[in-house]
Specification:
mainly alpha, 2 helices, 66% helix, 0% strand
Length: 147
């Protein structure tokens, strides 16, 4: 219902403008400009307020997300720190076990051979050093428990 009334009012205003004197037309144009400018300014102010409110909301959300990210990062770093501490402790324990299990000079079973333990050509027995038939013990040379 409002639309037909507005249309009729608009048509009446146009007819009135056509028949009005120039001085009245100028005043009407000035008033129309002022109204239009006021409307635009009001819309601009309301838009600026909404934009500012939105900016504050977005800023708050960003700060919340940043705090959340910071907390998650700190938790992750603490977890890594704990795991590294455990790994360090395990490494130290392993090092202690290895150093306590070092074989003595007498035991050759567990000892890893070094460069000094590698035989050279000087260590190979020659034909003169090999035991002969005369050097092999017989049953007469073996000691018994009673003897």
């Amino acid at each position: 219902m409002d639309k037909p009334i507005k249309k009729a009012a608009g048509k009446v205003a146009k007819k009135a403008m056509e028949h009005a004197p120039e001085s009245v037309k100028d005043k009407i144009k000035e008033k129309a400009k002022e109204k239009m400018i006021e409307g635009i300014q009001d819309k601009a102010h309301s838009f600026a307020e909404k934009a500012q409110d939105t900016t504050f909301d977005v800023g708050d959300k960003i700060q919340d997300k940043a705090k959340e990210a910071k907390e998650k990062t700190q938790d992750a770093l603490l977890t890594v720190k704990d795991k590294l501490g455990d790994a360090k402790e395990a490494g130290e324990n392993l090092q202690k076990k290895i150093s306590s299990n070092q074989p003595s000079k007498d035991s050759h079973k567990k000892r890893i051979k070094g460069i000094r333990d590698i035989k050279t050509s000087k260590d190979i027995k020659g034909a003169t050093n090999i035991k002969g038939v005369q050097d092999i013990k017989s049953s007469n040379n073996i000691k018994t428990m009673g003897s």
